[in-house]
Amino acid sequence: MSVKSERRTRGEQIRVLVVDDEADIRELLDLTLARMGLASDCAGSVADAKQMLAQTQYKLCLTDMRLPDGEGLDLVRYIAEHCRDLPVAVITAYGSMENAISALKAGAFDYLAKPVSLDQLRILVHSALELPQRAGDDEASIAHSLLGASPAIQQVRDMIERVARSQAPIYISGESGSGKELAARLIHRLGGRREAPFVAVNCGAIPESLMESEFFGYRKGAFTGAEADRAGFFQAADGGTLFLDEVADLPLLMQVKLLRAIQEKRVRRIGATAEDAVDVRIICATHHRLKALVEQGKFRQDLFYRLNVIELMMPPLRECREDVPLFTRSILRRLSSANGVPMPALTKAAQEALAAYPFPGNVRELENILERALALMTGKEIDLVDLRLAQTPLDDEPASGLAPLQDYLDQVERQMIQDALDRTRFNRTAAARLLGVTFRSLRYRMERLGLNE
After folding, report:
1. CA-angle at 371, arms to 369 and 374, nearest 5°
2. Within 10 A of 79 (CB to CB), how many other CB atoms are there?
3. Statement: residue 197 has pLDDT above 90
4. What residues does 199 pair with on adjacent strands?
5. Could you give phi then psi for residue 244, rounded to 5 degrees?
6. Contact 423, 405 (CB under 8 A)
7. CA pair distance 94, 212, nearest whole angstrom
8. Is 315:156 a contact under the CB 8 Å cutoff?
9. How far apart are CA 31 and CA 271, in angstroms?
10. How far apart are the first and last CA of the chain?
11. What residues have CB less than 8 Å from 148, skipping those under 6 apart?
12. Among the ranges given (136-145, 170-179, 231-240), the one the predictor scored with the smallest mean pLDDT
């Protein structure tokens, strides 16, 4: 049975929609929001909530997962489709992490577990109300930071703009040098945490014996050499974003502790008797295939599912060949300015060589090549000899039987797409799902490989 909606008129205050079929929960949330200076409208069903959304403009929606006439997920999907600028947070039963992850995947901004912690509720509300509205400035910021006009880069830009408005954990995959940390910093800068710290951690560079103290901190006297209290990465990133680069390098024991910290949103310093509440958004990255490591028993499955709520794939440079001249000009402009020299041009031979080079090290390798060429060039232009490109299979003698790297990669990619299309009876939407890519990405790859003919 639908519960009659309760509406409070409080002038022009910021309004929050609360959706829960339990009157005491609605009253608790309403009272807490009022003490924060916010107005709230309360609904007891999905139908009531949709009616209110049609009549009133809200800045935040809080919804329970179980409602009399549907699921909170139904409301999350409805808001994602009809009210794209409205952040929605779900309230889940204690221990229902699968429901929380499903909500985040459906587009929820964040989640709260019952019994609701009022401190965590206040943090969530502040984060949600700090979200920037969609604007041309955001798009310009993304375009300025993430260069490129290729379909693959445009797809990444679109994804970054969407995920920046969420608190969901992000898993950035891609080869070394493809710009994973750049993407993480953009997500942070465009989200509601942009004024708070962004803490980047290279998990592979920390000795195993120091991991717990580095991540969670320690109290004075906790061990020999602990001469003063020290905060860990989680405390340093409190309110902001914690970027875990090369997360696949974490040992299994540390993976267990990381999982608990993420789920409980609390950490305990070494030597402390109480836990500290922390509010961080987790973004992780690795050049490894995490799913394969899970299958090999080298990465915990429960942590993988907790981190891989939303995946952002950074394309390799060989899939953005049309952007190589743009990247080249931008890098040369920056390097020349830093060295106080005029920006050189590239000879036609140098341009053609860069256009054909497979760049196994991606944009980072391109930057290294150009920095070296700028230092070694003898004339006013960068020539082919100045680039000193590494040998590729194309440079090997024909007797080796090796094909050019790009030809080989194209052949493998073509075969995988063809197999997926055969299995789905040429249903491209189903084939894209099978391959783990978007429909737009599949269409671009098919065009590039001549599979539409």
Report:
1. 105
2. 25
3. yes
4. 242
5. -100, 95
6. no
7. 26
8. yes
9. 38
10. 56
11. 154, 320, 323, 326, 327
12. 136-145
Q: Quick check: 197 and 239 in contact, CB under 8 A?
A: yes
**Which residue segments constitute the domains of the chain, with CATH numbers given?**
6-129 (3.40.50.2300), 136-313 (3.40.50.300), 317-390 (1.10.8.60), 400-448 (1.10.10)
Round the average pLDDT of the chain to a whole number and report it.
84
Are 439 and 155 contacting, i.e. CB atoms less than 8 angstroms apart?
no
- Measured CA to CA, the distance from residue 111 to residue 448 in angstroms comes to 41
What confidence tier does 6 reach under pLDDT thresholds 50, 70, 90?
Answer: very low
CA distance linking residue 88 with residue 110, whole number of Å:
7
Whether residue 397 is predicted with pLDDT greater than 80 in this model: the reply is no
**More confidently predicted of 408 and 375:** 375
In the three-class reduction of DSSP (H, G, I as helix; E, B as strand; rest coil), residue 133 is classed as coil
CA 231/CA 288 separation, integer angstroms: 29
Task: Check residues 248 and 224 and name the one with the higher pLDDT.
Answer: 248
Residue given tokens 């930057």 in the structure block:
367
Which of helix, strand or coil describes residue 39?
Answer: strand
CB–CB of 192/199 below 8 Å?
Answer: no
Q: What pLDDT shows up at residue 263? A: 87
DSSP 8-state assignment for residue 328? H
Paired residues of 284 in beta bridges = 171, 244
DSSP assignment, residue 318? G
Predicted confidence (pLDDT) at residue 1 exceeds the cutoff of 80? no
Residue 291 DSSP class: H
Residue 8 is predicted with a pLDDT of 43
Per the listing, tokens 């080869």 go with 175
In sequence order, what are the beta bridge partners of 276?
267
pLDDT at 95: 56
Q: Is 225 exposed, middle or buried (0-12, 13-18, 19+ CB in 10 A)?
A: exposed
The whole-angstrom separation of Cα 359 and Cα 313 is: 17
At residue 233, the pLDDT reads 95
Q: Which residue in this structure is represented by tokens 């299995």?
A: 423
Rounded to whole angstroms, the Cα distance separating 164 from 131 reads 9
Could you read off the pLDDT of 73-98 as tens digits, one per residue?
Answer: 889 989 988 887 888 999 887 556 67
